[in-house]
Amino acid sequence: xxxxxxxxxxxxECELPKAWYNIQADLPNPLDPPLNPATREPAxxxxxxxxxxxxxxxxxxxxxxxxxxxxxxLNVYTLWRPTPLVRARRxxxxxxxxxxxxxxxxxxxxPGSHKPNTAVAQAYYNKKAGIKRLTTETGAGQWxxxxxxxCNIFGLECVVYMVKVSYEQKPYRRSMMETWGAKVIPSxxxxxxxxxxxxxxxxxxxxxxxxxxxxxVEEAASRKDTNYSLGSVLNHVxxxxxxxxxxxxxxxxxxxxxxxxxxxxxxxxxxxxxIALPFVRDKINGKDVRIVAVExxxxxxxxxxxxDYDFGDTAGLTPLLKMYTLGHDFVPSxxxxxxxxxxxxxxxxxxxxxxxxxxxxxxDQKPVFDAAVQFxxxxxxxxxxxxxxxxxxxxxxAIRCKEEGVxxxxxxxxxxxxxxxxxxxxxxxxxxx
Length: 433
Known about the structure:
Helices cover 41% and strands 17% of the residues. It has helices at residues 45-48, 54-61, 71-77, 89-95, 116-128, 142-154, 164-169, 171-179, 193-201, 209-221, 235-241, 243-254, 270-284, 301-304, 347-354, 365-379, 385-404, 422-429; strands at 8-9, 19-21, 66-68, 85-87, 100-105, 133-138, 157-163, 183-187, 226-228, 261-265, 290-296, 306-311, 320-325, 359-363, 409-414. Strands 1-4-5-15-10-11-14 form a seven-stranded mixed beta sheet, with helices on both faces. Strands 8-7-6-9 form a four-stranded parallel beta sheet, sandwiched between helices. Helix 13 (270-284) links the parallel strand 10 (261-265) and strand 11. Helix 5 packs parallel to helix 6 and helix 16 crosses helix 17 (385-404).
């Protein structure tokens, strides 16, 4: 009999979920509608048709519990899905904890993060609608590289407005996007009215996701052959990401386990929503499970923001969304976790936090990188700065299990690797955080 430890819990491709889960079917309190930026009245499909295909607009407002995944999308997913669920046994031993720690490894996708789960779906629906070009924004570059990858697969042009500080900090993410054929523009830029307005006030602006969104939306709205694609926040984005949690549930069933705590880092909400929403459904139906969102103290929308209607972008071009927000003109400090530098939270996540179904905590950069290095030394994977926030919280929960002498099951989303974030680690090792 083999003495080799079982580490990975795997699904066969035939076990890949065939439908995304829509939390809107089960919310105790429905979402507040988006508002038209001009009239402040509830926005209808016509208000979004200028930049989104109708299939995605219908998913945005759907209350159907399950949305079938098109075969064309599933065929692309099989390049990397199902992703492994890994028992972090080496980390458990390093922490000397009675906790069982699992992580869903989304870093195995071609662009190296969870983002292709929605990028592939969005590129497919835009191609189906006859769109030729997509514009988007990106912070750390994970979303921009995912959409570049997806557009290349479906034969679409891709224009990415990349937050300037990340454009400068992460040149190899830019190289990835260009390898897949995308055009990458540092934001704020002189290509749009929104960008020029920002630069006139602050020529040295480091940029923000809100500014980059303004530029991408402006370009998409000005061309009939172009739509806009968003990597987080919106309902249909979180919908597509639920394949992560759906797979994790199947994998945990294989080892007869279930999490006491589910953790995800939080910027706009896509990666947290992806791992957590299927478990939130269980919580709504009576399961005793904690859902924890982890954000940076430099951009604490859930822990310090206000729940209010606000624009998703800096220039005020998008519909107003009811969300926890720091204000659409908020420009966060240039921390290394670029994917978490967003002023607002997804309406779905905001609703669940307000209803007490999700809790939130915030960390400074230094303890986050302490956890990232500890994880890398134990498990071998160097995590992205964003996902290191979830690792920090998971380690803290495991330490608490040790202190209390209680065995709990902890699940977190390893939403991306840090192979293109080594300048951040250089800063950490040099004591510059």
